[in-house]
Amino acid sequence: MSINMVAAHAKWPEENDAIFGLAAKAKEAIDKYGKENVIDSTLGALVDDDGNLICLDTVYNELKSLPNAAIAAYAQVAGQADFLEAVQDACFKEYKPNAYIKAVATPGGTGAVRHAIWNYTNPGDSILVCDWFWAPYVTISEEFGRKVTNYEFFNDNGEFNIDSYKEKFEELVRKQKRIVSILNTPANNPTGYSLSDEEWDKVLDIAKESAKDPENRIILMVDVAYIDYAGVGSERRKFFAKFSNLPENIFVIIGYSMSKGYTMYGMRSGAAIGISSKEEITNEFYYTCMHANRANWSNGTRGAMSVMTNISKDPAKKQAYEDEVNRYKVMLRNRANAFVEGAKECGLEILPYRDGFFVSIPCENSKKASDELIKENLFVVSLKKGLRFAVCAVSEDKCRMAPAKIKAVLDSLK
Ligand SMILES: Cc1ncc(COP(=O)(O)O)c(C=O)c1O
Questions:
Q1: What does the pLDDT look like over 141-153, one tens digit per residue?
Q2: Amino acid 20: pLDDT
């Protein structure tokens, strides 16, 4: 008879990460059939047209120029002071809210999501997340004895479903007197949707209405993991300025990641950035997150912090970095445009794409569809409500061809 050694709360199904598993299958197919015959749209990382991971030269030249000791040494528990300034500049650019703001370094955006969920909800509470979501929101919530409530991301017109958001938001606030609402925008994973500035106003109106009850605690967790590939210039950062002068029982936490914008996925760096109209609330956030850092991973990756700080301080390095990211932003847009046009041409229904690494295709029985597409050497991730195609990982030519292949398979399953 088998026995469990782990405690009951830590016992989870013995399963491997589905996306990494599919990526391994795609790799096998490439070895067998050749890369020109396989479309691998599994992983959320920028890949060039030859299938190689893109690693920004401006970032890695800077990392490799650091003295060994600057990479090897421990960082401060909250993060190096100059990094905590630099990360705010990198995140907000010219749209820094007029508010009290404090940042804490985390190992990627994941750490910031973790801190928001653990530190701002009570055991058994539900986190509010849309129904097209990044799976680790659920993993993290489960790990901490929290649940997830979904609202419908889109209405029948393909717009942000503000009515569904309002209904679920108010339901949770009534029940819990506090809410952590995670909004992964701009460049949502998995849909590529970005809330418009008008949609942001509506979200904030709902938060402000609930905040009229001084007992309520409203926390907006804005996951901007893909912001550096969104919009033209800083246009997709304008909404940050709306976090100025909010009621004091609305607290905003930004989850900033260096994984995508700096192509430092494995270097594990980012920040949780707290925004409030009251200084004591951002101070509380800072010391709470510092404690949580110490308790979980002690401190962050010092070399990654130095890369951002050094690029931020030197105007020439900063310009070179921005030019390099921008080139890839254009590449990504061309690929996404090719996919969207290909979908239009063959009549494949997709969700509204605005920015970022992914496009989503709503469908029934997505697992079956993904399995059938594997037979065509097209690898897409199946989600509860559809398929996710990673334009970040596929050349423009293949992005144009893929929709017709997907449409044919979906039609054959009807
Ligand atoms: C929606 C979303 N949020 C956050 C992250 C955080 O990633 P990291 O912890 O590598 O910064 C990711 C990465 O895949 C993501 O897709």
A1: 999 999 999 999 9
A2: 86
List the residue whose alpha carbon is closest to atom 3 of ligand 1.
Answer: 225
* pLDDT given at position 120: 98
User: Residue 125: what pLDDT?
Assistant: 98
pTM of the full structure: 0.97
State if residue 270 touches ligand 1 by the CB under 6 angstroms criterion: yes
Residue 164 lies in a domain: yes
Q: Is the dihedral angle over the CA atoms 298, 302, 304, 308 positive or is it negative?
A: positive
User: Could you tell me the residue range of the domain that residue 201 belongs to?
Assistant: 75-313
Query: For position 287, what pLDDT does the model report?
Result: 98
Residues 295 and 381 in one domain: no
Q: Does residue 122 share a domain with residue 102?
A: yes
Question: Would you state the pLDDT for residue 17?
Answer: 82
Cα(404)–Cα(369) distance, integer angstroms: 14
Domain total of the chain: 2
Residue 302 sits at φ, ψ, to 5 deg, of -65, -40
What is the structure's pLDDT at 19?
Answer: 87
Where are the strands (E) in 198-306, listed by range?
A: 217-223, 250-257, 270-276
Residue 10 lies in a domain: no
CA distance 46 to 85: 27
- Domain identity same for 366 and 271: no
C-beta 109 within 6 A of ligand 1 = yes
Q: Which residues of the chain have pLDDT under 70?
A: none
Classify residue 195 as exposed, middle or buried by CB count within 10 Å of its CB (0-12, 13-18, 19+).
Answer: buried
Answer whether 357 contacts ligand 1 (Cβ < 6 A). no
Sequence-distant (6+) residues with CB within 8 A of 15 are none
